[in-house]
Amino acid sequence: MIILKTDAQIEIMRRAGKIVAETLKMLEAEIKPGVKTSHLDSLAEDFIRSREAIPAFKGYRGFPATACISVDDEVVHGIPGNRELKEGQVVSVDLGAIVDGFYGDSAATFPVGEISEDKKRLLEVTRRSLEAGLAKVKTGVKLGLVSNTIQTVVEEAGFSVVRDMVGHGIGKHLHEDPQIPHFGPSGSGPTLEKGMVLAIEPMVNMGEYKINQKPDGWTIVTADGSASAHFEHTIAVREDGADILTKL
Q: How far apart are CA 175 and CA 204, in angstroms?
């Protein structure tokens, strides 16, 4: 069941989304060789709490940290720890915050120092695929058009969209209906309506789309060891387009 949000509820979610966006911006300046992922996680938690919000991921289904921090071949759900970032890696940070009972959720992938041209293109294409998908959002279109647009941008660049991880509706719960694949036919899925709030989050692999889960029970990695990137925005559906709630 898709739960439509009122304008007042969307404004609360915008507050949560802005805090997430500000947290990601703060972390971007801290991501450099030698920094431990646990340090980034501590910074994120302190920042979110300083804004009188609640870290959305900490304790969610047992997840032990504020941020999912995933490095190179890790697609999503990486657990922060004592690992130090190294020059040339890419690091994806997925964050959520709760304000007055409503969630905001966003993710971005950042370079660690200087990265290869291939990794630069991976980040650029993943970001561009999300932007292209969001440009299709408006009332009356099928959600599948958004998914298909993302897939087209990614595959035309020679990369692959992860198929076993999806975006989702969001509101008083972190994960609500509908599930949002980032591939598939343009005529599929529900018709977008005003008041839908969606977390759209393509995860794009440099190699094949298949993934595995590490023994920690959380971290998702590419099956072929190739690098992966992840960008996400929480958006509200409007008559004339996507209202991005997780932007500065």
A: 21
